Amino acid sequence: xxxxxxxxxxxxxxxxxxxxxxxxxxxxxxxxxxxxxxxxxxxxxxxxxxxxxxxxxxxxxxxxxxxxxxxxxxxxxxxxxxxxxxxxxxxxxxxxxxxxxxxxxxxxxxxxxxxxxxxxxxxxxxxxxxxxxxxxxxxxxxxxxxxxxxxxxxxxxxxxxxxxxxxxxxxxxxxxxxxxxxxxxxxxxxxxxxxxxxxxxxxxxxxxxxxxxxxxxxxxxxxxxxxxxxxxx
Length: 233
Known about the structure:
This protein is an alpha+beta fold. The chain has two domains: 1-43; 53-229, no CATH class. It has eight helices and nine strands. A nine-stranded antiparallel sheet has the order 2-9-3-4-1-5-6-7-8, sandwiched between helices. Strand 7 (151-158) and strand 8 (162-167) form a beta hairpin. 29% of the residues are buried.
């Protein structure tokens, strides 16, 4: 009887040990699964950004653009940071034959369309062919312009109404379906403004380059320059 009781006790102890090992391993598996679930999800790669306002300058050295703008306190700046628009000016490296300029100091047509004209013609006299694009998401205010050697060859801007309409409408504008109105024309509804807003990137791609469509592989090693203005014109 004593032997039987002894073996029974050993058997019960063994069963308890095996059961505790099972519970321990089960707890480890649950903890591991929970830890995997806590891992941050892999985010898709960032797409290139399209700034609200930008200038495209054809086939020039970025240093020439910096000199023409009269930038001071310039520092190196990544493409992604520059496209976010937090600096007075960001000058991109040359991409597909164009240098892109963006930043808080660029004039916008809804603030002062005359300032846009003066800025672009002054810059064009120094650098040649200059293009301007503006597309504000909330208001759908929009603008585009082409300037050659200081002369405006085409410009259109809408800021609740048409504030700039100069030159002959280009073939890309017509093919894309952009709608332009004369001064004082009441036909420019918000729906049409929204449609134009959505097509600014496409026009930039036809005229020069759309910042949001540039090959991501080019952006990996791209670096530009950020700086402040010493004078506007």
